[in-house]
């Protein structure tokens, strides 16, 4: 195995700083993605609730078949995001 190149404490510190900056940027972007996902979910369930409010008899069954969720799940999520 090739011997380790001599590195200085300054080189190591610079590497650690760059890696810490990369980790911080990743954490910031993941947090932003979580906020976007939460906002998208809320908007989706609010639009489902608006579509179902005052709709024809049996519309919840049709919505369950169309969306792939159970009627109970749709009810819970639309109540949660009103």
From TrEMBL:
The protein's name in its UniProt record: DNA binding HTH domain-containing protein
Coiled-coil ranges from the UniProt annotation: 5-39
Keyword hit for Coiled coil: yes
UniProt KW keywords: Coiled coil
Organism this protein belongs to: Streptomyces aurantiacus JA 4570
């Amino acid at each position: 195995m090739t011997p380790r190149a001599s590195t200085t404490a300054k080189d190591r510190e610079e590497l650690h700083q760059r890696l810490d900056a990369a980790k911080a940027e990743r954490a910031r972007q993941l947090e932003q993605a979580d906020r976007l996902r939460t906002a998208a979910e809320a908007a989706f369930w609010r639009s489902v609730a608006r579509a179902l409010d005052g709709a024809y008899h049996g519309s919840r069954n049709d919505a369950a078949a169309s969306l792939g969720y159970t009627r109970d799940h749709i009810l819970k999520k639309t109540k949660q995001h009103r």
